[in-house]
User: Which sequence fits this backbone?
């Protein structure tokens, strides 16, 4: 039983990190209806920029705001240079544009910072927390816990931003009906700029946490693949969906790996989440938390 | 020759001068539309479905760009200022706000959030915005009751009220109201038009009212334009239009038989020459 809880908690904690990546997608999809294929690359780009800056002698606390500035500017630049000219084009064109963008960013990051694999240290070790091990006999990784806490704070801040602030409200308004938003004087482009900037910032946090865990390398772009089943499960436009979806995927993939894996020879962690997501999709095509399409009277 | 003089000597607030609108670079939809709205007036823009009413209103609010439409000729002035090259945001800031056809409420926002979103252009003036909100609730008590419901789940009448209230939140001096009666029960339509009249009298908001429902529009407006096929084919004081035989026949449905176009009628052609 103890082992079960250990796996479960470990899974939930890594699930929070999936949520974080999924949230980047949700933000942009919600506001502009674009599935941003480049989200994973933005995560990689952020981590690489951060590491690159620290290698050039910047301290952690200097590199962090510097990278944040870079990511915000990157988000704004993407909105301006790629999406704005494509406004009113079919969704698929926008999607294709973000595919192109992802390869561009990948190349750009590697030209500037090189292609070698690097470690990223955020000063938290991946080791069991002593007192929990003593008290409950559970091995819970300190890194996982801290990472989950950071992600949780960010998610809470975003949820507050969406529901309580003027800009957040405008953003949801744009997501609902951008013609009506224009008609009441909400400047679409400014809102989209903000969304991309926020998505850049989210990518930074995800990049630091995932980079610290897996090393900063090209494979980091694949964390986006981890976010896909989360999105299928939670719905593309739901912040709570991204959170709960992440938790479900994180926990179930670890449990499946441990308990079902041995029966089929292991290695199911990679695809089990997709099976789960597909099953959910069959019964609820809009995802567990996807916004119901409200029919107007 | 001159068309009938613009309504009673009042100051002109909105002046649309001979505009032409093209969609997708090839589809000519407005072929030289001119109209004006006096300060504090209620002016009706009438015409059958597809005549170009919504296009005219969108041209004024500069919402055409988002639909691949473009004003290729003519000018639009508000309070003596050219507005045809401004962004939609700037047009709202100058005091012209549009309530689009089909209401377009933000379905997943609550009624109150819809209203607050309408105050976006007013920035962070929290106090004043809260004041305006109370005023809007005073005009639409039903919205106050429903303030926490998602707009998407409210009735058609409530959505129309939400949409008008949302426009009011920007503190406009003019509202462009597109087909407010569409799909609503007659007594709700009546209720909404009464509120429009009230807002006009007490808040000094001018209205340009696009309607297919000619009867009710002419009851509340003081002046009207009739649009057909992208052209203004007739204009005049509301009472005169309502009394006009052709209008009665084709728009008020007072005679039997299918609706025909004005153009089919000879004596109308004569009249048109006289108007031009
Ligand atoms: N986005 C668009 N692209 C092409 N044609 C359009 C577009 N919007 C409207 N139209 C055409 O312009 C004409 C006028 O439409 P509209 O202004 O909506 O008329 P109304 O509001 O009077 O019913 C119609 O023939 C319509 O088909
Ligand atoms: Mg219309």
Assistant:
């Amino acid at each position: 039983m103890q082992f079960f809880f250990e796996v479960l908690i470990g899974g939930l904690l890594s699930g929070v990190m999936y949520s974080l990546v999924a949230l980047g997608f949700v933000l942009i999809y919600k506001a502009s209806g674009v599935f941003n294929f480049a989200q994973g690359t933005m995560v990689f780009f952020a981590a690489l920029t951060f590491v690159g800056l620290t290698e050039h002698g910047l301290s952690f606390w200097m590199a962090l705001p510097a990278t944040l500035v870079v990511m915000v500017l990157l988000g704004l630049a993407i909105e301006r240079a790629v999406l704005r000219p494509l406004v009113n084009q079919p969704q698929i064109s926008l999607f294709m544009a973000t595919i192109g963008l992802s390869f561009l960013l990948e190349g750009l990051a590697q030209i500037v910072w090189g292609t070698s694999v690097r470690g990223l240290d955020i000063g938290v070790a991946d080791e069991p927390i002593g007192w929990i091990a003593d008290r409950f006999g559970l091995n819970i990784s300190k890194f996982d816990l801290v990472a989950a806490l950071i992600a949780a704070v960010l998610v809470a801040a975003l949820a507050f931003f969406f529901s309580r602030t003027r800009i957040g409200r405008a953003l949801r308004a744009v997501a609902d009906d951008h013609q009506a938003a224009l008609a009441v004087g909400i400047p679409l482009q400014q809102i989209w700029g903000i969304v991309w900037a926020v998505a850049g910032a989210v990518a930074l946090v995800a990049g630091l946490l995932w980079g610290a865990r897996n090393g900063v390398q090209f494979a980091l772009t694949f964390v986006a693949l981890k976010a896909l089943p989360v999105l299928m499960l939670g719905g593309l436009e739901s912040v709570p969906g991204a959170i709960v979806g992440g938790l479900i995927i994180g926990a179930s993939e670890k449990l499946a790996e441990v308990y079902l894996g041995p029966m089929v020879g292991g290695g199911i962690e990679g695809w089990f989440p997709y099976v789960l997501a597909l099953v959910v999709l069959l019964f609820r095509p809009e995802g567990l938390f996807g916004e119901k399409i409200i029919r107007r009277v | 020759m001159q068309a009938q003089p613009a309504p009673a000597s009042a100051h002109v607030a909105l002046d649309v001068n001979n505009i032409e609108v093209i969609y997708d670079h090839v589809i000519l939809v407005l072929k030289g539309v001119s109209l004006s709205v006096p300060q504090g007036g209620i002016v009706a823009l009438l015409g059958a479905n597809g005549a170009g009413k919504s296009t005219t209103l969108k041209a004024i609010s500069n919402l055409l760009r988002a639909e691949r439409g473009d004003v290729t000729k003519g000018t639009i002035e508000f309070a003596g200022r050219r507005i045809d090259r401004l962004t939609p945001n700037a047009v709202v800031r100058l005091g012209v706000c549009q309530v689009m056809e089909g209401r377009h409420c933000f379905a997943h926002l609550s009624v109150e959030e819809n209203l607050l979103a309408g105050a976006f252009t007013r920035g962070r003036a929290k106090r004043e915005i809260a004041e305006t909100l109370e005023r809007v609730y005073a005009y639409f008590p039903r919205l106050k009751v429903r303030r926490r419901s998602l707009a998407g789940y409210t009735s058609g009448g409530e959505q129309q009220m939400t949409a008008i209230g949302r426009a009011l939140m920007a503190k406009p001096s003019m509202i462009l109201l597109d087909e407010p009666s569409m799909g609503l029960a007659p007594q709700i339509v009546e209720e909404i038009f009464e509120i429009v009249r009230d807002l006009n009298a007490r808040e000094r908001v001018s209205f340009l009212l696009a309607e297919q429902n000619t009867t009710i529009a002419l009851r509340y407006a003081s002046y009207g334009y009739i649009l057909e096929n992208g052209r203004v084919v007739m204009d005049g004081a509301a009472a005169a239009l309502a009394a006009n035989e052709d209008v009665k026949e084709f728009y008020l449905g007072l005679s039997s038989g299918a609706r025909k176009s004005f153009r089919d009628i000879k004596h109308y052609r004569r009249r048109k020459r006289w108007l031009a």
In short: The domain at 12-95+172-275 of chain B is CATH 3.40.50.300 (Rossmann fold). Confidence is low (pLDDT under 50) at residues 1-9, 255-259, 265-276 of chain B.
